[in-house]
């Protein structure tokens, strides 16, 4: 008959053991929420200028090509 030996786990091992099944779901929801935030805030000049124009793949799309004479401010 095999002996059953219990080993103590550190608090970090206990936390990682409980959190591991949720990491893929949390990452998916995080990416989806971040995408939704940037989609909804892409019309805001501050977000467009400070974040979206400085992103390497998106800078050409969000570049402001409006002449200065047509801008109200």
3D structure, described in words:
One of its GO terms (biological process) is mitochondrial electron transport, ubiquinol to cytochrome c. By secondary structure, the chain is an all-alpha fold. The protein has a domain at 40-65. 49% of the residues lie in helices and 0% in strands. The protein has helices spanning 11-19, 23-41, 45-52. It is rod-shaped, with a radius of gyration of 24 Å. The model has no long low-confidence stretch (mean pLDDT 87).
Sum this structure up briefly.
This protein has 73 residues and is an all-alpha fold. It is 49% helix and 0% strand. The chain is rod-shaped and about 85 Å long.
The assigned structural class equals mainly alpha
Enumerate how many helices there are, as a single number.
Answer: 3
Unreliably modeled segments: none
Topology order in helix (H) and strand (E) letters = HHH
Overall, the morphology is: rod-shaped
The percent of residues in helical segments reads 40-55%
Tell how many strands the DSSP assignment holds. Answer: 0
Distance between the termini: 83 Å
Give the amount of beta strand, in percent. Answer: under 5%
Rg, please? 24 Å
Average per-residue pLDDT, rounded, comes to: 87
Largest sheet: none
Keywords: Membrane, Transmembrane, Transmembrane helix
GO cellular component, one term: mitochondrion
Protein name: Cytochrome b-c1 complex subunit 10
Transmembrane segments: 26-47
Annotation keywords:
73 residues; mainly alpha; transmembrane; transmembrane helix; Cytochrome_b-c1_su10_fun; Cytochrome b-c1 complex subunit 10; membrane
